[in-house]
Amino acid sequence: MIRIGLLGSSGRMGTLITSLAQNEFKSDLEIIAMARKGDPLDPLLSADVIIDVSFPPVMTQLANLALKKGKDLPRFVVGSTGWSPEGLCLLEKLAGATPTLLSTNFSSGVFALSMMLKEYAPLFKKMGYVPVMIEKHHIHKKDAPSGTARTLQGSIDPVHPAQVQTHSVRAGEVIGDHEVTFYGAGDQITLSHHAQDRTIFARGAIETARWLATAKTSSHSHRILGMSDYFESLKTNSLGVS
Ligand SMILES: NC(=O)c1ccc[n+]([C@@H]2O[C@H](COP(=O)([O-])OP(=O)(O)OC[C@H]3O[C@@H](n4cnc5c(N)ncnc54)[C@H](OP(=O)(O)O)[C@@H]3O)[C@@H](O)[C@H]2O)c1
Fold this sequence. Notes:
The chain is an alpha/beta fold. It folds into two domains: 2-105 and 199-233, NAD(P)-binding Rossmann-like Domain (Rossmann fold, 3-Layer(aba) Sandwich); 108-194, Dihydrodipicolinate Reductase, domain 2 (2-Layer Sandwich). Helices cover 37% and strands 21% of the residues. Helix 1 (12-22) packs across helix 6, helix 2 (56-69) runs parallel beside helix 3 and helix 4 runs parallel beside helix 5 (147-156). Residues 8-14, 35-37, 53-55, 58, 79-81, 103-106, 201 line the site of NADP nicotinamide-adenine-dinucleotide phosphate. NADP nicotinamide-adenine-dinucleotide phosphate is lined by residues 8-14, 35-37, 53-55, 58, 79-81, 103-106, 201.
C-alpha cells in the first residue's frame, strides 16, 4: 500500500485526488496525511510520496522542511504552477535529495499535444508559419500564462519560449483550454486541447505518484523529472533514464 501525503487537500484538485484515492485507487494507496491552509506540514514527510496541489510558496516551505530533515525523505510529485526561477532552483535541490517530478499538467492529452508541437513546430516555422497561443482558465486561477502554456511555449520554441505570442483569458469556470494556431500567409493550422473534466489531472497526479513510489531508484538522475520520464518509463519502470 502506497502512503500518500497530500498538500492542498481542500482545493479543487485536492478534493478530487482524495475522492479518487478513497474509491478507484483504494486497493493501491491511502492518504496518510493531508494539509490545507493553517495545517502543519511536517506530518506529510512521513508519507512515501507527497502530491502537491497547492501553490509554489507553500510547496517551497515543505521543500525547505524536507531538505532540513535530509534523510528518509518521501518522493515528490509537484503539480502546483507559477514557479519562479528561484523556486525551480529549490526544486532542483530537492530532486538531488529525493526523486521529484514536476508537471504543469498531468493529463495525457496535453502530453500528446506537447509531443506534436515538438515534432511539427520546427517544420511549420521553416514553412513560414508563426505560432500564437490562446489559453483559457477559470477566474480563480492565480498564474498567467498558465504553467501548461509555459510548457507548450517550450515545446514550440525551446530556445526562446517566452517569444511565442501567448494570450491568457480568465473567464467563468473554464477548466483549461490551450490552442496553438500557426498563421501562414493564406491559411492557418490549429492544434488544441480542451479539458472537459478536472478528473483527468487528478487521475494523472495519482498515477504519476503511484509510478514514482514504485520505480527503481538505482538510476535516479538527480534532476527534476517530468511527464516524459513517466510516459517513457511505463515501458521499463525505471526512473529518469530516458
Ligand atoms: N499539474 C496539473 O495538472 C494541475 C491541474 C490543475 C491545477 N494545477 C495547479 O494546482 C494548484 C491548485 O489548484 P486548485 O485549482 O486545486 O487550487 P485551489 O482550489 O485554490 O486549492 C489550493 C489548495 O492549497 C491550499 N493552501 C493555500 N494556501 C496554503 C497554505 N499556506 N498552506 C497549506 N495549504 C494551503 C488551500 O487550502 P484552503 O482551502 O484551506 O485555502 C487548498 O487546499 C495550482 O497551482 C494550480 O495551478 C495543476
